[in-house]
Design brief:
The chain has 87 residues and is mainly alpha-helical. It has one domain (3-33, 42-76). 76% of the residues lie in helices and 0% in strands. It is built from 2 helices and no strands. The longest helix has 37 residues, at 41-77. It starts with a helix and ends in a 10-residue tail after the last helix.
Amino acid sequence: MDKQKLEYFRGLLLEQRRQATEDLLNDKAAALEGDDGVEDAGEMSELDLNRSTSLDLASRQSQLIKDIDDALGRIEDGTYGLCLPLS
């Protein structure tokens, strides 16, 4: 792949990484929000579900960031755009 295309893809990946990092921080913050004295069982269940969803989203964002970092590493070592062996 030529250098211009690699730089284009590096820019896309860096922007995706920035957005994923921002989303990860927001998801973690949502998961850590206090219960603000919620006493109703239904509201507590909803809060627990929201926290669980936020943690799941944060986990996915973490994996996305890892995948992006791996792709950026492949750009650096010259293997970006080549098929990877199945593991």
